[in-house]
Each structure stands twice: as C-alpha cells, then as structure tokens.
Amino acid sequence: MSSAAKFSLLMHILCLTLCSSSLYCHAFTSQEYSDALEKSIIFFEGQRSGKLPSNQRLKWRANSGLSDGSSYHVDLVGGYYDAGDNVKFGLPMAFTTTLLAWSVIEFGDSMHGEIENARAAIRWSTDYLLKAATATPETLYVQVGDPNMDHHCWERPEDMDTPRNVYKVSTQNPGSDVAAETAAALAAASIVFKNSDPSYSTKLLQTSMKVFDFADRHRGSYSDALSSAVCPFYCSYSGYNDELLWGASWIHTASQNSSYLAYIRSNGHTMGADDDDYSFSWDDKRPGTKVLLSKGFLEKSTEEFQVYKAHSDNYICSLIPGTTSFQAQYTPGGLLYKGSESNLQYVTTSAFLLLTYAKYLNSNGVVVTCGTSTVTAEKLILQAKKQVDYILGDNPAKMSYMVGFGERYPQHVHHRGSSLPSIHAHPDRIACNDGFQYFRSSSPNPNVLVGAIVGGPDSRDNFSDDRNNYQQSEPATYINAPFVGAAAFFSANTNH
C-alpha cells in the first residue's frame, strides 16, 4: 500500500473514531471542507481597503480609503481592515499575512482551485506592507486611522470621514515588535511567490531583511512609542523579543542565509526559546516559532534546534487530554477555551500548529514525547479535527461559527460594512452617528460577510448572536488566516 493510500485509510479511521467519541457528530465531507476553505479566503475580500479589483467576489463592498497617507505624502492605500472597524492596524495585519503565507507553504498543495485566491489574499497585504516599509528610510508605517475616533462611529468603510491619521515607528520611536512581524510576513510571503513570481519574491525577501535589521538595531515596543493609538486595541503585551526571534526564523527559512541561523543561535535563549508558552496569537509568537524551528531539528538534526522540538512537544502536550502535561481548558462541547474575547483566534492557531507539527512528525517518523507517554501525529490530527469541526457546526448548539457556511450561522455580526446597507442598496452617505440605528437593529445583517469566523462561544458553549457582544460576534483576519491552512488540509485528507 502506498503512503498516500495509508494516509487516506488513516484519515478514514480517524473520522470513525471521532464520530464514535462525539455526542454532536457530523462527519464533514472533503467537499464541505473545500467549501469552508473557499469561504475562509473570500472573507478577506470583505476586509479589503483601497481600490477593489474587477474580480472582487463580495460585490456589496466598494472602494474605500483611496487617499490613505496622502496628507502625509505617502501612499498607504490598500491592506486590510483588521476586524469589524475601519482601522488598518499593522501588527495584526502582518501576523495575518504570516499565517496566510504559512498556510500556503504547508498546505498549498491541498488548495487546488483556491491556491490563486489564497495568493491574492496574501498579495493584497504584502503590496501594502511593502509600501509601508519602503516609503521613508528608517521608518515603518504601522497604522492608518484614529481608532478612538473610528470606534465612536458606526459607518461603512466607503463613507469613512473619521481622521485617517498615519502612525509610524522610526529610529527615535522604535517598534521592534511590529517591524519584526512585518519582516516575518514579507519573508514567509517570499516563499509563497518563489515559483509563481520570482522577482516579487526577491523584492519581498530583500525588504524583509531591511525591516528586520531596522527592528533589531532600534529596539523598543511600539506600544511605548504609540501608546493610546495602539492600546488597548493591539498593545504588545508580550514585548518584542518573541517577534525578533520569529522574524529571524522566517528569514532563515526563506533565505537559508547562515547569518540568520547565527542570530537564532546567539539570541534564542534570551528571546523566548527557553520559555514554555501556551498561547499563539497576534501578540505572542513563541509557540509558532518553536514549531517552525523544530522542523530544522527533525529534518537536519540541527542540534541547537533540539530545544525547539522539546518546547514544541510541551506546547502540543498541553493541548492533549490524558497526557501528564495537559493543562488546556475545553468547553463541555470540546472547544479549546483560552479567553472570553475572540476565543476562536486561539482555536484556529492551535489547530494549525497541531496539523503543521503533525506534518513535520509524519515526514520524519517521529512522535511527541509527553513525560512518560508518547503521542502520535495521528492524535494531533484528530485533536485539530475536533476544533475545526466544532467551528463548522459539530457542536452542542449545532451552529456554524463561519458566516455563510452550513444551515445555521451568526446573523448579527459585529461588522460595520456587513451590518449597514451597501452603497449599491443605499447610495446616500450614512453619517457617523446615523449608522447606530443599524447597529441596534434586531434585523440580520443585510450583507453576508461570507467566510468570516466570529469570536465564538463562551466557556459553556453559549453564544450570543448579538452585534453588541463584540467579544463573541466580531470576526477578525487573524482568526481566519490559520483556518485557511487547516481547512485545506482536511479538504484533501478526508474520505467522502
């Protein structure tokens, strides 16, 4: 039996095992996972800022932010709105881009007809990040829009009239966290475009190196430099060391340049290599860095990367019930639960890391060591599948938390463009405060934000489909990005 046939049989057994152990079983088909994959990428089109292309699929959106940066004499048109508001926040946008790129790097072979759309989603961001990184020497533009003013309005991005202030980090006001994450995004994307657009790939990698050098030479947190413009929205709570190690790891992965390997060797222990951290998010990159670098140890027996394999094991073991290192919290319905605000962001990142690590282990015939017990790659895939399936509707509420997927999904999403009539349906401008009548309305959102994964249910599997409850009903780009990779994996590795 070929390895592919063995893997197919394994997935079939996993599906049967999962169904026999679940009270809410719905065995999703590969076609359903493919549908979820397609929709998870379409979502990014709903978050686009700038001039929309002719092949835009979410037709209720239109051009917005066409003069972003102009009053500062820089071109900052494009990029993504992070969630349900109209601000372009650089740190979550860059992290989203890194995770979208990583999804394609690991699982692009399973994306089939969606690979071009996935690349387009990445490029929409990298085109913007390139401009933000190269507009002015020794400067990185990291945000467009005054978040405090923006959050006082409920208006469509097409109608925005709140200040489009531009925020930057520089040698005098450093932001190593946002700069190193931007470097990671550009480096990871350079791998994605290496074959399809070599010159673009080279530009991405060269810019990545310059931005990383800037981040490393001028150290400081962007939260200190920009204070109320980024806090409490996207404060860098974990500091910037995790981003510096993450950025160096991605540039090393993309370039195989020995100087970045030397950087990781010299700085790893002071930048989080020795920490066990159990939460992978836009703020904290440590678990992701360890999984990424563990590949070097597994494939090349690079001895200094052994520590990353050991800490990756610790992270993975923390998620697997029954191991001596288990410490995660799960809801009664089986959903990983980390926090009351946008909890599904932690679910999608952990599912992605479980699948990526399983891939690395499978490729090298290795298992996870959890104290005295061992956990196989198959067990990691099973755990990831439970999380993905829960999001798609295999849960106590029998509700899909991806908008537009399945028969029942959130109707009152905390998202300005989705909740207000489109400019096609209502061409007249809707002013700042006039939008709140739609925010408070009990009617479903008039525009379906296809593919958006919302914040999700609470620790008891309860979900409030309420625009006012942004903790549960707001989508975000960084929730979707790792899910793209997970959906791709299951679309290709699940029996009908």
UniProtKB/TrEMBL annotation:
Listed EC numbers: 3.2.1.4
Phylogenetic placement of the source organism: Eukaryota, Viridiplantae, Streptophyta, Embryophyta, Tracheophyta
Active site, UniProt feature: 414, 465, 474
The keyword Hydrolase is assigned to this record: yes
InterPro entries for the chain: 6-hairpin_glycosidase_sf, 6hp_glycosidase-like_sf, Glyco_hydro_9, Glyco_hydro_9_Asp/Glu_AS, Glyco_hydro_9_His_AS
Signal peptide (UniProt feature, chain positions): 1-27
Family label: Belongs to the glycosyl hydrolase 9 (cellulase E) family.
Domain of life assignment: Eukaryota
Keyword Nucleus recorded: no
Gene3D superfamilies: 1.50.10.10
GO biological process: cellulose catabolic process
Record's keyword terms, sorted: Carbohydrate metabolism, Cellulose degradation, Glycosidase, Hydrolase, Polysaccharide degradation, Signal
Gene Ontology MF term list: cellulase activity
Span of domain Glycoside hydrolase family: 33-486
The organism of origin for this protein: Rhamnella rubrinervis
Pfam short name (any one): Glyco_hydro_9
Catalysed reactions, as listed in the record: Endohydrolysis of (1->4)-beta-D-glucosidic linkages in cellulose, lichenin and cereal beta-D-glucans
Record-given protein name: Endoglucanase
